[in-house]
Amino acid sequence: MIVMRLRQVSLLAFTMVLSFLLYFQMFQRTLGTFPTRFAGLLAVIGALFLVLWGLLLEFQPYASQSILPCVLMLTTIGTAMVARIDAEMDTDVAYRQLIWTCVALVCTALLVVFLRDYRILRRFSYVSMVVGLALLLSPMLPVIGKEIGGARIWIGFGSHTLQPGEFAKLFLAFFFAAYLFDHRDQLAVGGRKVLGMRLPRVKDLGPIIVIWFASMGVLIMQHDLGTSLLYFAMYVSMLYVATGRKSWMAIGFVAFVAGSAAAARLFAHVGYRVQAWLHPFDAQVYNQYPGGSSQLVKGLFGMASGGILGTGIGQGHPSITPLANSDFIYSSIGEELGLTGLLAVLVLYVVIITSGFITAMKIKDGFGKLLAAGLVFTMAFQVFTVVGGITLVIPLTGLTMPYMAAGGSSLIANYLLAGLLIVISNAANRPAVDTDSDTFEYEALAVLRERELSQRSSHRHAAGEARA
Hints:
This protein is mainly alpha-helical. It has helices at 2-30, 36-59, 67-89, 93-114, 125-137, 165-182, 184-188, 206-222, 225-243, 246-266, 268-278, 283-286, 294-306, 329-362, 366-390, 408-429, 438-467; strands at residues 145-148, 151-157, 160-162, 190-194, 197-200. A three-stranded antiparallel β-sheet has the order 1-2-3, with no helix packed on it. A two-stranded antiparallel sheet has the order 4-5. Strand 1 (145-148) and strand 2 (151-157) form a beta hairpin. Helix 4 (93-114) runs parallel beside helix 16 and helix 15 packs across helix 16. The longest helix has 34 residues, at 329-362. The model has no long low-confidence stretch (mean pLDDT 85).
């Protein structure tokens, strides 16, 4: 056990050293000095990561130890790139992002300490549904709802904004996992067989139709293609895990394609993104406003200029691309860290996603299996859509890279997502109790005696009240 703990803390310490070197090199090349306020805040973040690791050892001793270092490294790369763009554009986004990182670490630490058993979330399935829908629809309120960049997905208080949809995905994941766990037997029953595939019964199609209409509602009311696709994909993936039937995936894919095709024809902003994807280098499409492909093409040329090893941190021009510190931070990394840096980032995501899927396969509790699979698929889908959109594999969706893109809402929500995966992995990796040991038999007998004594006491109390 001591050797394993030393290996774990060595991995975390190595990640911290790499993080310091990345910040040091970036600041030396952009500012010529290491700003004092950044040094103090980075020291606080390092201390919070060590505290979080210590809390994991105390309260989640069997949890996966590979998730936390990967999250730290992704956060470091993202905030360092945001700070590098700040130096070129004379903005101050990175410092706020580091403050949000502190808040995210505190929230994750509280989650690790107080959520000792994730199964308690199943008791609040419909409460989670109500909270999730309320968060999802809150940007439509007339006073606090804000429309930024053509999408109404923000709520604002003065100069501060929050994206509640990032937190809604967690609550809806709780509800989906509980609902599918309770109804998995009915949903697994097949109907007619078509083209070698047994389709579900017509009466069981209700839930997926409701989710499809809800996703289209988000697209219509909030003009947010990425979020609507994310929720629908999360539900369909959890439905497949719950039932094991490929027909649900086929129906979900058909509904996904039909909804996307209809959205491209009915909504101008979606049609612009599809047009920019199909003809990015066409002069007319490039100069079109709104909905031109100039942002996408600039991001592509930025990555192309990075080559294999990149221009070097602080030596490129990522700010030429609009939204380089948020929606297009992946192309900014490609310019200064090259293809090697991009692949390293993807490897870090793969480690987190693989750890999540291993947890989902190992956990014996059905609710935990669905919740872990849903959460990790949500992250995988989000990474795929962002990378695919920037590299012309699919149209842009407006989603952001977890842990890396500027934005406090996304950062805190994804840290809580990682915290939930860590808590579930603790239950998955916990060694099974030896039911043949004398200790287990003694403890079981002690529990039975206590229960018998409490029942006798309650009967006596009831009898005394009856006589009185």
